[in-house]
């Protein structure tokens, strides 16, 4: 490796990208974006990773992974694992370009024609939710996540302010510009009373076939998660996501005892160890990790192979705070593994797609990473340099009495 650069850009939202150049002039890109903590990853990469990579063999992907993971002594954690992920992706990108093959071919080749994708519908009231679901169907989506406002509460995370008026679903932007997070209000009982009425209406309107998903954003206790899972069973959800914080993996036993609802967990996890109990006890159905936050293609492939022994599938995290490079990496991996389940997908904004030139496609509800050698994404320096880093944070959540809460 001749150079390891860290590129920061904000074409509407912040992205951290690693670009590795080899002595032969080949370049590879990796995504290290950690929403709201971007500068910590950029420093980790610039100050501690780039200097020790220069001069190393770019073809030695597994060895480089172990060198960064074991060599740091301090293991795991989102900053470390996003940094390793970005280097890993860039090395797979280079290997593909050198071989003249798309990365999915290096991972074993296509195991399906394309990746079933789901998008985010949301709204304040049922008619707006219907409109938002319809917009997705018109776009070709064959699976839709449904999020709703809650009567009595103000702005709720996951419900796009623009989407609430029936338009602007591409404006999904969880991090809000500013130097401090905004605060939202939360009431779990009000949410639990309201949510089944929304799914009853959506299922009634769109019929039994459309896969519907929902994200609980870690807001419930295991008992509450079991109750909401049970009350949603009649509406046949594809999955209920992050029903409870899962740092305590064993708490999912309680949820499983209470409901047969398919469960997806893991977007804030960053290593195979976060999944050990969840996978071996079959306490979840879908692995939600992002390639970007879980040590890259090399590590997430290991998690998925482990999960395959327990009939657990992928549902990789893919909001717009994963850059197009991270999205492409997820698509190559998803296309190649046997236990693919579904891929979260939202189109990035036009300014973002001017910085990151993608070659993946979305047609008839299916994503495909394309056949360009490597990951298939190019970085436009001129467009990237036009937008500097600017602070933006996810909101925080408080209960109505002011207590800090998960979201
Ligand atoms: C999802 C997520 C996102 C995250 C966001 C945090 O399911 O897509 O929950 O909305 O909250 O990516 O940065
Ligand atoms: Mg989520």
From TrEMBL:
UniProt-listed GO biological process terms: carbohydrate catabolic process
Residues covered by the Mandelate racemase/muconate lactonizing enzyme C-terminal domain: 127-262
InterPro entries reported for this sequence: D-mannonate_dehydratase-like (IPR034589), DgoD-like (IPR034593), Enolase-like_C_sf (IPR036849), Enolase-like_N (IPR029017), Enolase_C-like (IPR029065), Mandelate_racemase_C (IPR013342), Mandelate_racemase_N_dom (IPR013341)
A GO MF label: magnesium ion binding
UniProt superkingdom: Bacteria
Pfam families: MR_MLE_C (PF13378), MR_MLE_N (PF02746)
PANTHER family, per the entry: D-GALACTONATE DEHYDRATASE-RELATED (PTHR48080), STARVATION-SENSING PROTEIN RSPA (PTHR48080:SF6)
Protein name, as recorded: Bifunctional D-altronate/D-mannonate dehydratase
